[in-house]
Amino acid sequence: MFHFHDVDILLKLAACELLDDITELLAVEEDDLKVLSTAIYKIRGLGKKGTYPAHAISGAIRFCETHDVIPGVENTASAGALLALGDGMDPGEVILFSSALENPGSRVVTGDKRALRCLGSLGKDHEITRSLRGRVVCFEELLLRTYEKHGYDYLCQHAHRGAECEGTLRLVFRSGLATEHDEALAGIRSIWVALNRDTAGILVARAGKRVSAD
User: Fold this and answer.
1) So what's the pLDDT on residue 122?
2) HEC string of the chain?
3) Looking at the whole model, is its pTM more than 0.85?
4) CA geometry: angle at 196 spanning 194 and 201, to 5°?
């Protein structure tokens, strides 16, 4: 099953030093992971601006260099419909979701909440959201899977490394390594639940044993 990644999720995971865990978290093989053809150039540009720490930039670039790019979009109708959603969908996200629509067995891995809510505005009965139902993995989902597989100390240590450049982590782990277990997990869970409510069912359903999402 192909998993298409956007720049945002690559940088967030690289900042947390979790990119090496991605095949385990997604339960896929390395060959299933795909990136945007423009991702490496955008990441290099962000590196020059100092938007992300050096270890995040280098980690994300290395990931792009070692994984295949997302196939080109043939169905211009789906791309046009996504572009029509306005500023919430940048060109990269349009390619990402258009490619997913053309590859029914694929999933999208994204940290772009604005784009997800933009899709959610279409409503659950729209052709696009129906096609994407249960096929999007968000950043918070990966944080919860990290906890479920490795425990809280591992999650907290990695989240602390990425908190400098990621809003969810700054909010949830505002006490740094001293952040309480229940407080952090409740925060991640509430963000996931709110995003799921706003996105017309396109998020992958929560199935973790340690943290429920209902």
Assistant:
1) 93
2) CCEEECHHHHHHHHHCCCHHHHHHHHCCCHHHEEECCCHHHHHHHHHHHCCCCHHHHHHHHHHHHCCEECCCCCCHHHHHHHHCCCCCCCHHHHHHHHHHHHCCCCEEEECCHHHHHHHHCCCCCCHHHHHHCCCEEEHHHHHHHHHHHHCHHHHHHHHHHHHHHCHHHHHHCCCHHHCCHHHHHHHHHHHHHHHHHHCCCCECCCCCCCCCCC
3) yes
4) 155
Q: Per-residue pLDDT for 213 more than 50?
A: no
Rounded distance, CA 164 to CA 53, Å?
8
Q: What's the CA gap between 23 and 28, in Å, rounded? A: 5
pLDDT tens by residue, 109-135: 999 999 999 999 999 999 999 999 999
What's the confidence (pLDDT) of residue 210? 47
Phi, psi dihedral angles at 154 (to 5 degrees): -65, -45
Residues 152 and 184: beta-carbon distance below 8 Å: yes
Q: What's the mean pLDDT when you consider all of the chain?
A: 92
Q: Write the CB contacts of 39 (distance below 8 Å, at least 6 apart in sequence).
A: 5, 6, 7, 10, 60, 64, 92
Q: Are 15 and 164 in contact (CB under 8 A)?
A: yes
Q: Which residue has the higher pLDDT, 207 or 143?
A: 143
Tens digit of each residue's pLDDT (9 = 90 or more) over 23-36: 999 999 999 999 99
